[in-house]
Each structure stands twice: as structure tokens, then as C-alpha cells.
Amino acid sequence: MINFVQHLSDNHYDLIDMVAKHCFVSCFDGTDENPYLKRVLTHDGYCLTFNQLDFNDMFTDQVHDDFKSYKNDKKSNWNPTHGYVQQEDNYPYQLSNGMSKSFDALLLQDKNNKNKDCSSFRRGFDIYWHLPNEIVTDWHSTKNIWNLKKYNQITLKVKSFKMSPELQKYDVMHRQCYFENEKKLKYFKIYSEKNCMLECLSDQMIADCGCTRYYIPRNKTVPICTAKDLMCAWNVTGYFYENVDSHPCDCYSACNNIEYELYSVSEDDLDEDMKLGEYFDMDDLRSEEESERFTVISIKTVKGKIEERTSFSAYQMQQFISDFGGLLSLAMGCSILSIVEIIYNAFHVKHELEHDDEKDEHKEKF
């Protein structure tokens, strides 16, 4: 492992692709090279991603060409603030809620894989969920799937957060979020809190170590950290994670944002009579030995439970007048209109008295 890291170069993506084992067998349409899934490098190594934005839609021109592995033939017409620009040929793909609209995949794992040099003590597969404009990080929610011959069903709850544009007049420190285009990132075209944090970590690592980890966005002049730099990189990462709640680099969430929350997980045995080959449109399930290593995952959203939260100004002028008048009416038996009438009558009486005095003075002169 050390020799491998020590000799990483600009063609390291090709090297990893050559030595990495393929764990993906089939998706819901039965193809081995599924057009919906793309291979990308993350902090855990090679991963398969669904609905990820294309390199040109995701990154700015400053990002190193290594990240072109985020290549996607589909052009995005979506962002978290406005949703889809058009309603036809949408990408990222829209997934309806409910069982019939789940994302299903058949995976193959090595049951004898107990490599002590792996980055994690866990076995099996780590399933992450994130926005299409984000790179998978440790800050994203995850679920580990490791049991063989199981049908694993993961249900997610979708949360939508929106903020009224009228709140943009308030300082960022008070509202604790950014509106679209309020904070520009060097490497990402679309702002998100996790993208900001990843960019902040990259800048800190470059400043302290003169390099950055292979999965972290960098510009075209910054090298990848090798074995001699790893201790420095780990120290920077550890310190950053310990202080992430202090909002380094002023990384706050987006005012208009979408989040995925784990709702439920269920696990069932794969029936011997379950015709996985037919379901995944495969002629057979490989050898009998491989059939003992299959795992099926099914990911869906909660039916009819998209949680929406919209933030408005706490008090607008009209609402303040209305609430103040209602409070007076409740506590004093009067209203704003009553106060206006009292003030009007007071000035009117004063004016009448002054007018009468002027008449009396005029009569005395004659």
C-alpha cells in the first residue's frame, strides 16, 4: 500500500482502475456497464455514483483534469435553488416515491476479503446519499451493508429547506446560510456547505503540507500527497474534523437546500426461489460459488413524506401593526384604530378651543 501511494502520479486514476476489483454485477436494467452509474474516486477509494453531475456542470475551470472521471453524457438543467429549468429530458433523474420507484442493484462482494490495510474495519458496501452537485465525503450520511445473500431495503426521507428572498437583507451571521451566488467557491460551480468545507480542507492542506489528497479537488499545479506527506495530511484532516462545528472558512448551509435523512432499514433473506436473474434481466447468476456472494440493495424514498420548511421574516410591518393592535385590544380593550380616534379627537378639541379663543378676542376689540 505504501509503495502504491508513494508512486502516485498524474495517471493514478488509470492505475487504480487497473487494480480495483469490480463489485458491481447488474442494475435494474440488467446491463453490466450501466449508463446510470459512473465510477468516481472518494475518500474510501473507487465508488459507483448515481445521478452525479457532469464534470463541466460541477467544477470550475481551475480544477485538475483528474476529476474528469465525473464525466456524464447528460447535461444538467437543475440547481438546488430553482429546481429544473425545463420539464422535459430532466437530469439529474427524478425518482418518484414508493416501492415501485426504487433504485435496485445486484452487488458481488468477496467474503474472504479481510485486508488489514483497508481504510475501514467494516466489510461489505458503504452506501452514501448526497446531492448531485456534491462529492461524497465523511460528512455525508452512510449505511454499511455487509451480509451475504440478503435483500437490503433502505428508505430515505427527503427534506426541502427554503428561505424567503426578503431575508437576504439580513447579515449572513444572523440567518446562518447563503443565498445563491452570495458565496463563490474556487472549485465548485454550485455552492453547498459540504463543498465549501471540502474546499476549505483542501486550502488548509495545501498551506500546511504543500499537497492534497487524491480525492480532494485541487488546481492544476498542486501535487497529490505521497507517503512522506501522509502524516501531515492526516493531522490537518483530524484537526479540521475536530473544529468543523466552528464553521471554518464561514461555511454555512445554503438557504435553499435539500437533505436526505435515513428513515428505515430492513433486511430479508434472499429466497432460494427468488428469480434474481429474471428480475435483473440476466441469463444466469454466474457460478454457484458467486451466487453465495450476492447482495441486493433497494433504495427508495418515503411515500408521500417530503418534509418542506420555508423561513420568512419574523415580523413584517403589516404583521407588527396587526399583532400590536390585537395585543392592545386583548389587554386594554382597545385597538390601533381606537388610539388613532383618541389622538384625532384630542387634536380636534384643541383646535376647536383655540378657534373659540380667537373668536372671543375678536369680539372684545369691537
Automatic annotation (TrEMBL):
Transmembrane segments: none annotated. It comes from the Eukaryota. GO terms for cellular component: plasma membrane. Pfam families: ASC. Keywords: Ion channel, Ion transport, Membrane, Sodium, Sodium channel, Sodium transport, Transmembrane, Transmembrane helix, Transport. InterPro entries: ENaC. GO terms for molecular function: ligand-gated sodium channel activity. It is found in: Membrane. It is a multi-pass membrane protein. Belongs to the amiloride-sensitive sodium channel (TC 1.A.6) family. This is Uncharacterized protein.
